Amino acid sequence: MTDHFALEFRRLFDPPRHRLAPLFSGFLYWLAFLLVLEPGNVLRASQAGYALPLGLETVRITGAAVLGATVTPLLTWLTNRLPLTEGTRLWQRALIHLICNVCLAFLLIVISCFLAAWGFEQQIVPSFAEVNSQLAANWTLLVFALCAFTTIVHLVRFIRRKGGVTAATATNAVATETTRGERIPIKTRGRLRFLEQASIDWLETQGNYLALHSGPNTQLVRQTLTDFEKDLDTSRFIRIHRRLIVAIDRIEEMKPLPNGDALLRLRNGHELRMSRSYRDEVVRRWSEG
Question: How far apart are CA 254 and CA 284, in angstroms?
């Protein structure tokens, strides 16, 4: 149990890492958001008596989308650390998300004013009136856009976790119904032999084969991981990935990763990546052992 609390503590303070996936998805989100608003900008400019240059608008929209994308890794990280779809004190987490979005909206508007002053007005510092005008016109709208993005990330996270838990539960239910022995029959090159379950460290799929790792030796078996899992002792083995099963007593250390996954180091020094879909169950079983 102590290891479980230590893992959760390290996971809470594990620093965020900017990755290409959140940046790219954030860029597409902000690009779509700005393009939806663009017809209104063109209409207002036309009513004011001047047309918006296409090239200038393209640069402005692209730059604004890039600027918005820079905060999406932070929002994704905050969502993973303070999810609104699980746990307790959800209103406190929601309040933290709201405060964060309000501050980010303010910061993005101020930065955009500086960029506009440098790029279009040849000024070092934007005027206070311009910053105040942009805050009055766009702050509420930007807070709404940030909250909408946070909501989307929460929904995606909830759907993925629900699907992963359902798959893991179904796999464990099927495995429990099967009687397991200490030895597993293995057919290789037309010969039948038995492998002691206690000697297996971990298993993984390799194309059409299943690799059984036992100390320094690796045995390839032409069988699927799902079929082989039916003969395994579930009190001894646990799935950590759709391609990996590991012996619980071989786990030496867990190292959390920023996206919710974890890196397992076995007693023989080998490292395996654990999917976040199986993380809670593995932590529970490992801490109980």
Answer: 12
